[in-house]
Input
Amino acid sequence: MSVIGHVLLFSPIIALLSWIPLVGHLLGAIFMFAAVVFALLWANTLHFLIMGISWVVYRPLYGIMMLSLVGLGIAIIALG
Output
């Protein structure tokens, strides 16, 4: 559900881009695709961060693995 919310944060920019004559719909579609990819990465990173912190208490090995996935997600977002 949070992916939809993150994509909706970019919807005003996408709406403004689609008003550009001739190339507006193409720019809007490209920006929408980029927003969806970013939202998927960001939402999954937040998901694993919250789950990893809570799992450290009950199952430390799983929690540390999830927190390493958070580090991987942040690295992908920062380098991409």
Observations:
- The chain has a mean pLDDT of 88.
